[in-house]
Amino acid sequence: MVSFAGLVLEDGTAIYLQIILFIKRAIVAGLISDGDELPSRRYLSTLLGVNPNTVQKAYRMLEEEGLMQSHTGARSYVLLNDLVKEKVRSELIEEDARSVVNSMKQMGIDKSEALKLIDRFWD
Fold first, then answer.
1. Global pTM?
2. Torsion 9-13-17-23 (CA) sign
3. How far apart are CA 112 and CA 94, in angstroms?
4. pLDDT tier for residue 36 given thresholds of 50, 70 and 90
């Protein structure tokens, strides 16, 4: 069963999006594999202290993306293959990189300074 022990909900971002991002990052990190069972909507909503509809929305969106499968009254499972994992990885990397670059541009940091910062913090 996929563990949500590491999920810390933050203000400012919709909870259903935080659930989706948590699952996607765990997929990329190799912590979630094809066929892993996800907690029931009711259990996860209780665990996180959120409305069951919030978890339902996250799960529905994951199903629409083809990352999970569930049936009424049955368990929900993660659906993955190498192509799907690479797609999720690329999307997350691009989204995070775009956000960092935009923030640096807003602060007036030029490309050479940004690359120096990346190099400094890489190690």
1. 0.88
2. negative
3. 20
4. very high
